[in-house]
């Protein structure tokens, strides 16, 4: 045969053989398919392209979105198809050269119940329930309740929670029952830190801008004066600041302290600090969990612009009595919990008291700065109590109570001073400042069926402060006598009712909806002043302040929704209204969160939120002080509102050891208020406070990076924030935009914890932040004025001139804290020693700046006050 003939014959053979591969298939045909984490439809496309197997199905009836990993080498076709389609109940039949796919109707069953501590019966919020065969799951809500709808061939669920051993929950025969799923706690704090990684991965959470704070993380932080602190731990997160050393309050993404909604078992708290911000309101030992939302706010939250801190307290051990006692350098505390009726009713009570006043007065029994036998008291106390009662498998109630107060008293006895020109001056004085919170909440949980859960809550919250002063002096030579007395007080009260529903009809939907009604009562600015020694009678005044009531109402609904195989959304709306002084303000606030899954388990997230705030805080300071005054919106001052957009990426590593998140945000704020003058103080009569403020707007934007190691003997995180916070007010700074007092350009947090065996734990944290803007005079006039009767020699007067607002930036702040904890298990109790050093290298961070005059040089210069130098502390505790 010629060469041309051979070529033609070969081409004919190829043409005849090729269709045998693409169309001549049967059930025994050997196929090779290799894919990794791809939708099932991709496998079908490969079979169709390589082997001519055409699939016929309705996309509306047959779901091929499930991701699969296949490594089939020369596997029989029928065997591969059964392996691929059986988990989804898809039947396949051959019709001619086509494979017709039909999906059987899947019989669903709903598994619901509570996840709880196997030892104490404590309900566990945020526990993960996962169906490995479906690659779907859910988490328990704030009360430990879960609901998951599965298919008939699901055999078991995996249940896990931070600090507990994972458990396998059999599903067969469990449908339509309220289950109690017990998890065994790991035996020590060290093991919690090492192994506490069984939680939902970042890429599996549609919610962004959220920080979940386990109790183990709080207790592993270095302790200031021996106290673990929830709020101080939150301040170490990216995007969150706490102001200058010793200052309370949270500054979240450029917002002010009053823009944070802090909830204690669902009840709002208006001042969350003791001791001028050194301590938090709550004893950390009674906290079960804490969640911080910096943005992407779920629709169920409202009323603040910048953040939500949702704190759940322990319910009390249902089976055993136990507690702990701790004694530190300036405070002591105890906790006790146990059953009232075993497996039916439990209680927990906690109390704490500081005693720097006792130490000071015992150490200084001789002459002091307050005069012989003068007095100095500075202490706080707080008491928590909670009762948890189970009526039935479907009904339980919780009663929470809190009372806390700070007290500062300085009293001097009469003291006589010889004055050259005016004879003898006798004077005495006293000053007292008290502030505190009273909080109560009653909640009723009810399960209607396996998919619907509700919580009805009644709550009451009161914040009040009172300051009182007195000053007496006599100058017989000039015939001057004064006996001055004054007091100033303020109070705010809230009482409300709220109902929340949690409905989980299917794994692709998790729906929440509800409403609330809250009554506000404002009683600020109650003042009284008198001078019994004045020759002008009567020299006294009383201010009744600005008393008013407001009513706030809200409705909300939200849905965690799986739109596509790789696209998830949290869609919600929050509608609210506020009735005050005969005017009704209202707002519709949309909320949207999106999550899209990328290859290699990276998640891209984005969100948009609109928030309204109907109450304002009158403050002249950049920190949260007890004398700040809460006031409502008025006819002149409308509610504040904000709009925030955010986007970022997140991932938890395959071995669960590392978490990585990167977010950028932009927030605009409107109807912000600011005092019109630099030296504006709260007037005695607050009826016209809204005439002394200007209304403007603000912007904050930036980026946040966090890398967290959460597995192994060494744990911790590194956080970095780059941010800007600006404001603009008419008549201030010539109407130009200026950096606001919460503008901190760079913020770095490094937190590390190292476990050594089962007894030792070392911890360290280093914090750095750019100094905040300040308003300082650019020049001053110094001249002669009129002498005062109690200081006849003083005639100097200084008048400052300002040019713009926040025209100076304070020094940068940085600090290193370290701590070491030694624990040892005894037969009946566990003892521990904690040694901590706050501000190890004694950095002189500023607390207050002020202008000081050098009388020799005749010059004024800027000086600063530092309140927290290096502070070592020792705390001994027993847990029984």
Automatic annotation (TrEMBL):
Domain TonB-dependent receptor plug: 226-304
Subcellular location(s) per record: Cell outer membrane
Domain of life of the organism encoding this protein: Bacteria
Bilayer disposition of the protein: Multi-pass membrane protein
Cross-referenced InterPro entries: Beta-barrel_TonB_sf, CarboxyPept-like_regulatory, Plug_dom, Plug_dom_sf, TonB-dep_rcpt-like
Pfam hit, one: CarbopepD_reg_2
GO molecular function: siderophore uptake transmembrane transporter activity
A single BP term in Gene Ontology: siderophore transmembrane transport
Main localization category: membrane
Assigned GO CC terms: cell outer membrane
UniProt entry keywords in alphabetical sequence: Cell outer membrane, Membrane, Receptor, Signal, Transmembrane, Transmembrane beta strand, Transport
Official protein name in the record: TonB-dependent receptor
């Amino acid at each position: 045969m010629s060469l041309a003939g051979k070529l033609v014959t070969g081409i004919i053979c190829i043409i005849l053989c090729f269709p045998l591969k693409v169309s001549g298939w049967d059930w025994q045909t050997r196929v090779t398919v290799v894919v990794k984490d791809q939708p099932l439809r991709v496998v079908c496309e490969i079979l169709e392209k390589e082997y001519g197997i055409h699939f016929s199905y309705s996309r509306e009836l047959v779901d091929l979105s499930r991701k699969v990993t296949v490594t089939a080498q020369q596997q029989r076709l029928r065997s591969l198809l059964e392996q691929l389609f059986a988990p989804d109940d898809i039947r396949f039949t051959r019709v001619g050269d086509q494979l017709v796919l039909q999906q059987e109707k899947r019989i669903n069953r709903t598994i619901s119940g509570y996840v709880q501590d196997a030892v104490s019966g404590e309900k566990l919020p945020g526990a993960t329930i996962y169906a490995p065969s479906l690659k779907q799951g859910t988490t328990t809500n704030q009360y430990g309740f879960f609901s998951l709808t599965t298919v008939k061939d699901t055999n078991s669920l995996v249940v896990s929670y931070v600090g507990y051993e994972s458990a396998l929950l059999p599903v067969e025969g469990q449908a339509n029952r309220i289950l109690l799923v017990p998890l065994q706690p790991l035996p020590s704090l060290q093991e919690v830190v090492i192994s506490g990684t069984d939680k939902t991965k970042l890429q599996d959470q549609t919610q962004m801008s959220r920080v979940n704070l386990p109790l183990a993380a709080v207790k592993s932080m270095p302790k200031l004066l021996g106290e673990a602190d929830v709020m101080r731990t939150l301040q170490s997160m990216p995007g969150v600041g706490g102001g200058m050393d010793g200052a309370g309050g949270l500054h979240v993404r450029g917002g002010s302290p009053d823009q944070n909604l802090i909830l204690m078992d669902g009840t709002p708290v208006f001042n969350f600090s003791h001791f001028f911000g050194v301590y938090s309101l709550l004893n950390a030992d009674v906290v079960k969990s804490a969640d911080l939302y910096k943005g992407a706010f779920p629709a169920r939250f409202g009323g603040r612009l910048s953040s939500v801190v949702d704190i759940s307290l322990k319910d009390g051990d249902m089976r055993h009595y136990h507690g702990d006692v701790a004694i530190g350098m300036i405070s002591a505390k105890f906790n006790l919990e146990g059953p009232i009726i075993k497996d039916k009713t439990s209680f927990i009570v906690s109390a704490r008291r500081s005693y720097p006043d006792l130490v000071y007065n015992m150490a200084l029994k001789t002459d002091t700065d307050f005069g012989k036998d003068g007095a100095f008291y500075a202490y706080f106390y707080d008491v928590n109590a909670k009762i948890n009662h189970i009526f039935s498998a479907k009904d339980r109630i919780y009663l929470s109570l809190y009372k806390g107060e700070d007290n500062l008293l300085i009293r001097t006895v009469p003291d006589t001073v010889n004055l050259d020109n005016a004879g003898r001056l006798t004077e005495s004085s006293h000053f007292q400042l008290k502030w505190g919170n009273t909080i109560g909440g009653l909640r009723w949980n009810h399960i209607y069926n396996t998919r619907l859960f509700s919580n009805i809550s009644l709550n009451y919250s009161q914040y009040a402060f009172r300051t009182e002063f007195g000053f007496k002096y006599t100058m017989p030579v000039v015939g001057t006598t004064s006996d001055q007395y004054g007091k100033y007080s303020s109070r705010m009260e809230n009482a409300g009712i709220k109902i929340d529903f949690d409905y989980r009809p299917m794994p692709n939907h998790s729906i929440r909806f509800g409403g609330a009604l809250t009554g506000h009562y404002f009683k600020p600015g109650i003042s009284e002043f008198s001078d019994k020694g004045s020759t002008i009678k009567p020299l006294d005044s009383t201010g009744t302040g600005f008393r008013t009531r407001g009513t706030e109402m809200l409705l909300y609904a939200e849905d965690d929704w799986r739109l596509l195989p790789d696209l998830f959304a949290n869609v919600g709306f929050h509608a609210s209204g506020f009735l005050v002084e005969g005017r009704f303000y209202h707002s519709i606030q949309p909320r949207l969160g999106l999550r899209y899954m990328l290859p290699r388990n990276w998640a891209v997230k984005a969100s948009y939120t609109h928030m309204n705030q109907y109450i304002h805080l009158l403050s002249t300071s950049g920190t949260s002080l007890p004398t700040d005054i809460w006031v409502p919106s008025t006819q002149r001052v409308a509610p504040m509102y904000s709009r925030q957009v955010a986007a970022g990426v997140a991932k938890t590593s395959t071995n669960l050891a590392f978490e990585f998140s990167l977010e950028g945000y932009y927030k605009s704020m409107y109807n912000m208020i600011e005092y019109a003058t630099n030296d504006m103080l709260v007037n005695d009569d607050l009826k016209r406070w809204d005439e002394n403020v200007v209304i403007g707007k603000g912007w904050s934007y930036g980026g946040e990076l966090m890398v967290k190691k959460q597995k192994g003997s060494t744990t911790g995180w590194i956080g970095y924030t780059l941010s800007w916070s600006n404001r603009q007010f008419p008549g201030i700074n010539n109407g130009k935009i200026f950096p606001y007092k919460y503008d901190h350009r760079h913020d770095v947090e490094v937190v590390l914890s190292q476990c050594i065996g089962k007894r030792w734990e070392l911890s360290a944290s280093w914090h750095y932040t750019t100094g905040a803007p300040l308003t300082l005079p650019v020049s001053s006039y110094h001249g002669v004025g009129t002498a005062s009767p109690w200081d006849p020699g003083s005639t100097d007067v200084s008048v400052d001139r300002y040019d713009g607002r926040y025209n100076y930036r304070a020094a940068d702040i940085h600090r290193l804290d370290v701590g070491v904890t030694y624990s040892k298990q005894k037969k009946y109790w566990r003892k521990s020693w904690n040694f901590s050093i706050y501000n190890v290298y004694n950095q002189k961070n500023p607390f207050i700046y002020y202008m000081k005059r050098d009388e020799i040089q005749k010059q004024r210069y800027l000086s600063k006050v530092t309140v927290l130098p290096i502070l070592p502390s020792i705390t001994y505790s027993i847990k029984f």
